[in-house]
Amino acid sequence: MAKRFKKKHSPWKSFFSSFVITFLSLAIVVIFLLYGPWSGFRQLWITTAMTTMNHKYLATMFYTEDVINEVLANNIVIESGQSTNSGEITINNNGKPTIKKHIVKGTGYYGYMLEISNPSWIHIGISNKFGSFGEKLVDIVEDYNAIAAINASGFVDPGGHGKGGTPVGIIVQDGKVIYKGTSKVHDIIGFNEEGVLVLGKFTEKQIKEQGIVNGIDFGPFLIVNGESATIKGDGGWGIAPRTAIGQRKDGTVLFLVIDGRQPGYSIGIKMSQVQKIMEDFGAYNAANVDGGSSSSMHLNGELITKPCGPSGERWLPNAFVICSPSDYKAAQAKRTHLID
Question: Considering Cα of 57, then 61, then 66, then 67, what sign does the dihedral take?
């Protein structure tokens, strides 16, 4: 009787079959998410991609211009149109500010909120090579001997490799416009002489009339005079790391940074979530500032957030820094040649 031999199965054939099945399954899931009847993922994908500086292709490679424009039109922040009523804010400018740190976390996100009691210690700190090259936040903090700081202005970022040398939008420091930007009307997020956080759309002349001493050009404004902006969908900004600034009626300033783009730790938040967090902390005025890989926060000599850039912190043109008036003047004395 002939001896029977079992047919040997090639391990490579089994691996290839498993790979093909896995690939096809993933492809079906991706196609369903991108083009299926549920619009939530599609909207989040498009708004997240289109609000990045260098990754818009993640949306344009899958969707037509008409589809993208339709999604963006249905996911927007509709601001109240108001400007801050400074008279409604009570300011305490006595002594060194107390700073309270809070962990802010939820499903898929993690970050920090700082409460600062004395706004007179909050300034715009600039890079030591302002106008040509940025600095990492840790270096700006060291230059100004700052107790705490968060990133502030956006900057020109070609290919995601910008060095923070060219800010986006007007910058006001010590009551002087040190960078004009290209617009005639600016979305001002700044402090006046009394320490009130002023939000408004102003010309350069109006900025001076408002008495803005330290400010940047960014947005959107999420809360003005206690009235929250209307947010349709996710607000059109997708999910990303976020930095925001706000102020309560009692003058307390709020610094918020939420980390992102780090699955398993924190992927970031929507603009509507930034607004909700600011509401929960009692903000009477609040605005979004530059986010993404620029989002970062320092406190007491330590980087307490986890920036998502490949090499950690980005080079920035400026930051909101908390430091004594004397330390601020000393740092500025070394930068006079950069802004005259």
Answer: negative
Residue count (the chain): 340
User: In whole angstroms, what is the distance from residue 224 CA to residue 105 CA?
Assistant: 24
How many C-beta atoms surround the C-beta of residue 177 within 10 A? 17
Q: For 316-335, what is each residue's pLDDT tens digit?
A: 999 999 999 999 999 999 99
Rounded CA separation 31/117 (Å): 51
Report the alpha-carbon distance of residue 194 to residue 340 in Å, rounded. Answer: 25
SS3 149: strand
Strand ranges (E), 6-133: 77-78, 99-106, 109-116, 122-126
C-alpha to C-alpha distances, 113 to 140, 198, 257, 259, 340, nearest whole angstrom: 20, 20, 7, 12, 35
pLDDT digits (tens, 9 = 90+) for 20-76: 666 666 666 556 555 665 566 777 777 777 766 567 877 787 778 777 777 787 889
Domain ranges across the chain: 11-73, 77-339
Give SS3 for 228.
strand
Q: Which of 312, 315, 291, 290 is nearest to 303 (CA)?
A: 312
Cα separation, 23 vs 14, whole angstroms: 14
Written as one letter, the residue type at 21 is: I
Integer Cα distance of 255 and 190 in angstroms: 13
